[in-house]
Design goal:
By secondary structure, the chain is of the alpha/beta class. Helices cover 43% and strands 19% of the residues. The protein is built from five helices and five strands. It has helices at 14-26, 37-47, 63-72, 95-104, 116-126, and strands at 6-10, 30-34, 51-55, 81-85, 108-111. Strands 2-1-3-4-5 form a five-stranded parallel beta sheet, sandwiched between helices. Strand 3 (51-55), helix 3 (63-72) and strand 4 (81-85) form a beta-alpha-beta unit. The longest helix is centred in the first third of the chain and has 13 residues, at 14-26. The radius of gyration is 13 Å and the shape is globular.
């Protein structure tokens, strides 16, 4: 039997984390969680996830900072990262978000609130 792909979900909202965790686990993935960017970096070092879902706006270390650190490290640079942002949507992307996305080198992003089917589609696509 194939080993489940490991997803690391990093977000500071416990209710959001629990809801998304259930959705992603029900789709057959192994989900780990962290509640801020610094905790997320520690989890990446320990868990070596196959993909990271990373919120942008968090205390301690925001998602852009965490993404930049992960992408600058040869050990973690190839892990796909999907940024979650409450400040833009796919139709009306703000210049701020677009610039930050390019600078952070994340593979993709999606707006909050998250559409479960779209998130699962992104996860599946990046894990091919």
């Amino acid at each position: 039997m194939a080993e489940k792909k490991k997803i690391l979900l990093i977000d500071d909202d416990p209710d959001f984390v629990e809801a998304v965790k259930v959705i992603v686990e029900n789709a057959g993935y192994d989900v780990r969680v962290a509640y801020d960017g610094a905790e997320g970096l520690e989890a990446v070092a320990q868990e070596k996830p196959d993909l990271i879902v990373l919120d942008v706006m968090m205390p301690v270390m925001n998602g852009h900072e965490a993404c930049a650190k992960l992408k600058s490290d040869p050990q973690t640079a190839k892990i796909p990262i999907i940024l979650l942002t409450a400040v833009a949507d796919r139709v009306t992307t703000s210049t701020y978000t677009h610039r930050d996305m390019l600078e952070s080198e994340a593979e993709d992003y999606m707006p909050k609130p998250v559409e479960p089917e779209e998130l699962l589609s992104l996860i599946k696509g990046w894990l091919r």
